[in-house]
Design brief:
homodimer, Nucleoside Triphosphate Pyrophosphohydrolase, Arc Repressor Mutant, subunit A, 10 strands, about 30% helix, elongated, DNA-binding
DNA sequence: TTATCATTGTTTAATACCAACACAATAAAG
DNA sequence: CTTTATTGTGTTGGTATTAAACAATGATAA
């Protein structure tokens, strides 16, 4: 489905955005990628204040919130058809930009709807690093990947939102498969293990890990090895799309028997 | 903390509520209780349309969303200091009351802010059945418990919200202790097992269940038995408050080793 | 008063599962 | 060809889970 919406310039946006968007409500996306054995997230930098923040968005008055999240993700990455996981809604009283920002931010006046208090809906997404084309929006000067453990101080409570997203992702690992979205189509067992270790932030046993993920029944081993490394060449694997999706629906763990 | 807020009558509420509350945003509480071996939830009935719905509320412009949820819970049950678990935010385009409702609902006019499209934040809570004093609000004629499997058709997407809340609660059982909020102070092992079976909607093995919950290390067996039953009198237990809270914080399960 | 009943409390056995370890196979580098 | 670091696979011992056996007990009814 093609999403076509009005594009506002920053002045129009600051002054009349509340004609198009739900007031007091926003969404923020924590977009995870994986590259060079490092977990990364996509951050945006404000044009005038140079502050960093999560890529966020607003919800058109006649738009589903999940659709709005997908639209936001698409705008920053160019990607489509990505699973977005809503994980928490943040509604503290501190979620409001200060009046002093109007002095710094071009075109923003003291009565802008953006200076009101906002409740924000948090989503996270897993995307394939190499497929992303980071794109700043009208209000930002830069959009780029940051290593998860080098993220700077972000505006408002965005560092807290990131923390909660990471925690939600870690919880998710126990119940749902992961990797299809973060890895290239063909990958090795060490690649997958490294991904898990990075997200969970701990070392896993190589041999038991292999047994566990194979037991999930969502992997297919190819008759190919990844050559070029300094040592024994590991097999390449790919996900079985059907079984992967089934596991995404039904989950991998089960409760008390 | 005592919450003191303006009380509006229904006419004022319909006409000027948006002066006090965040527009387009609401919250809904799925309040679980347990009685006669049945899982129950608290529902509210609209005065004029006789439709049933989840007890919901709105968020004052200078109020934290979690505080608003606690206030709503308190208004319907009289209870304080209850853990409220936010589980999902619902933002479909169908979340809007029809214009025809103005004909049925007294004092509601066609331009009421309540007829706009709403995004709602879902919370669930576990409460002790016997301590609740169900109290309708200004707009509702009835407030009472319903067995979870006898819940009628609710307004908008409230049946779906309930379903998601139940699922979230079931997931929660795997990772966090439960029961302190739903059972009286002293209870038997069969009581606790019955609670788990009801929520999970499946039978559990009596002996293994006992071992499992005792292994959690949050129960204390009293030198008392529950007499009056037709057969062997079971021991009474109570929760160790400190250990229970620790388990609530840290969880009971751990991820991949 | 006593046998019966249904349920509870505890123990034990069979099974599945998992962390930890051992060792052979192998691609690249020298 | 030998060395090296890593990968692929198998084994082991311990732990957790499931399942079953059996004794204990409070109420009920003969």
């Amino acid at each position: 489905m093609k999403i076509s919406r009005i594009e506002l310039n920053s002045e129009q946006f600051f002054e009349t955005g509340d004609k198009y968007f739900l007031p007091h409500l926003s969404l923020d996306c924590v977009i995870f990628g994986f590259h060079d054995n490092q977990l990364k997230i996509l951050l945006l930098q404000w044009k005038d204040t140079f502050e960093w923040c999560l890529p966020g968005g607003f919800i058109y008055k006649d738009e589903n919130i999940d659709t709005a999240a997908a639209r936001t993700l698409n705008s920053r990455t160019g990607l489509d058809q990505i699973h977005l996981q809503q994980f928490h809604t943040f509604g503290g009283l501190d979620r409001q930009r200060g009046k002093e920002d109007t002095k710094k931010i071009k075109n923003m006046k003291g009565n802008s709807w953006l200076l009101e208090r906002f409740v924000t809906i948090g989503y996270w997404a897993l995307v394939e690093f190499s497929k992303v084309v980071p794109s700043p929006d009208e209000l930002s000067s830069d959009c780029r990947w940051w290593n998860i453990d080098e993220v700077p101080t972000l505006i408002l409570d965005h560092n807290n939102i990131l923390l909660k997203a990471l925690h939600s992702l870690q919880q998710n690992l126990n119940d749902y498969p992961i990797g299809k979205e973060l890895l290239p189509v063909k990958f090795t067992m060490p690649d997958l293990q490294s991904l898990y270790e990075t997200i969970l932030n701990k070392k896993l046993d190589r041999r038991n890990f292999q047994k566990k993920v194979l037991a999930m029944g969502i992997l297919e081993r190819l008759n190919e090895r990844k050559l070029g490394g300094a040592h024994k060449a590991p097999f390449l694997y790919k996900f079985n799309a059907k079984k992967y999706q089934k596991a995404m629906r039904d989950g991998l763990r089960f409760g008390l028997s």
